[in-house]
Amino acid sequence: MNDQPIAAGHPHGTAPIRVAESAHTVVIVGAGAAGIATAASLLAREPGLNIALIDPAHTHYYQPGWTLVGAGVFNAASTARPMREALPAGVHWIGAAVAAFEPERNAVILEGNRVVTYQQLVVCPGLKLDWQAVEGLPEALGRNGVTSNYRYDLAPYTWELVQKLRSGRAIFTQPPMPIKCAGAPQKAMYLAADHWRRASVLGDIQIEFQSAAAVLFGVSAYVPALMDYVRAYGIQLDFGHALVGVDGPARTATFHCTQADGSSALITREFDLLHAVPPQVAPDFVRASPLADAAGWVQVDPATLCHPHWPNIHALGDVANTTNAKTAAAARKQAPVVAHNVLAALGKLQGQALYDGYGSCPLTVERGKIVLAEFTYGGQLKPSFPAWLIDGTRPSRLAWLLKERVLPPLYWRGMLRGREWLARPELAGA
Ligand SMILES: Cc1cc2nc3c(=O)[nH]c(=O)nc-3n(C[C@H](O)[C@H](O)[C@H](O)COP(=O)(O)OP(=O)(O)OC[C@H]3O[C@@H](n4cnc5c(N)ncnc54)[C@H](O)[C@@H]3O)c2cc1C
Q1: Residue with the nearest Cα to atom 3 of ligand 1?
Q2: 0.70 exceeded by pTM
Q3: Residue 38 in contact with ligand 1 by CB distance below 6 A
């Protein structure tokens, strides 16, 4: 375990300081998209603030890039950076996993029983990909045509499989909501289909979208554009179908299918390629904590992102029980809101910042074109650009350029550095 202040202006920080217990003004649990952005936004407002970021991972990933890794557009390494380089200068990185919360003591307990105390706590350890919930899936992944863009090491295998397939059946699955980037299961499918179309083998490949959802995409304004592609690629849509088992060597996938009359059945399908997306749940240590709601996610006010019982606890990113799309785009808007509200609670800023539920999903419908879904709570459309530039309900080349060229640097150099491009928070009553 290391508790290491990252020295300002020095990418590798100083030597580890080992201490039995530490106290910080702000403790952030999870140095993913949400945690680092929040730390950076806090330091942009209050340089020198005593912040500890707790995360056992030594690598930070730009997960939105994995869809393009699975399509051969990005190489995997470009989506990963050493954690040290991703962290803002001046934060204390505690390289350990949080095991429990003790909100009455203003303390988090690390694995190994070390205690870290705080004045303000920000909870953002993301969600748990529940691979084990699908029988046979953990063993099947990475061979026999079974892949998933939801894992860094497997996204390149998706591209390898897509290139090799010349005929047969390709199945793309989507688990029950909520999941991170709800569009990602179908993005993988459209990009694969586009490759097969360009390789003139599309007619020999039967594509199935086996989804536990009842509709293609949760915000109806984007569905017509997506359906044009479903028809053009000849995709079979099966709703109410949840993947429950995989037999890799036999190349079969089993689905729990809910019929319109409420009855259910198990069906087994053979495949040549299976792109599996696992069920997604709150992390176990969050689910078991007093911070969780009945479903296991951290309970927060949807606008202030503050816990209803403990005003010095805030949550954002995939772990929060808000109804926005669980995306890095949402975390980009949430982080400045949480930063402002943490500093207001410390008496350093006035007013309350509010989050409107913004989330975004760039649906890669073909190589070079994206349907850019952007919406707030309740599925209200919230485009960042005027319709003459990017009409989010239509496939757009400019939106593809945004995803491929603009969003990665916006992430690494903007969001993770406290530059709140397109993300200035609104204050209550302003
Ligand atoms: C294939 C794919 C495609 C996607 N496409 C897009 C897209 O196009 N656009 C978009 O905006 N979003 C997209 N996303 C979603 C986006 O990546 C996530 O919503 C975002 O990363 C959530 O940020 P987070 O900080 O909440 O969680 P994460 O970024 O997952 O980070 C969580 C961090 O918490 C740490 N942690 C976990 N447990 C503990 C613990 N016990 N103690 C301390 N730390 C812990 C982890 O190590 C990790 O560093 C995609 C995701 C995937 C997988």
Answers
A1: 64
A2: yes
A3: no
CATH number of the structural domain 131-279? 3.50.50.60
For residue range 198-246, what is the model confidence (pLDDT) as tens digits? 999 999 999 999 999 999 999 999 999 999 999 999 999 999 999 999 9
Ligand 1: does its nearest atom lie under 6 Å from the Cβ of 87?
A: no
For residue 321, report the distance from its CA to the centre of ligand 1, in Å. Answer: 15
How far is residue 362's CA from residue 360's CA, in Å, rounded to a whole number? 7
Does the Cβ of 97 fall within 6 Å of ligand 1?
yes
Hey, where are the domains in the chain?
A: 21-127+282-358+390-427, 131-279
Residue partners of 275: CB distance under 8 A and separation at least 6: 147, 148, 149, 158, 170, 171, 172, 173, 185, 188, 189, 192
Per-residue pLDDT reduced to its tens digit, 1-53? 445 545 443 344 443 333 448 999 999 999 999 999 999 999 999 999 999 99
State how far the Cα of 24 lies from the Cα of 13, in Å rounded to an integer: 18
306 belongs to the catalytic site: no
Does ligand 1 lie within 6 Å of residue 65's CB atom?
no
SS3 197: helix
Asked if the domains 21-127+282-358+390-427 and 131-279 are classified in one and the same CATH topology, the answer is yes
Q: What atom in ligand 1 is closest to the CA of residue 34?
A: 25
31 lines ligand 1 (CB under 6 A): yes
Q: Which residue minimizes the CA distance to atom 20 of ligand 1?
A: 328
Q: What angle do CA 407, 408, 410 make, to 5 degrees?
A: 60
Question: 21-127+282-358+390-427 adopts what CATH topology?
Answer: FAD/NAD(P)-binding domain (3.50.50)
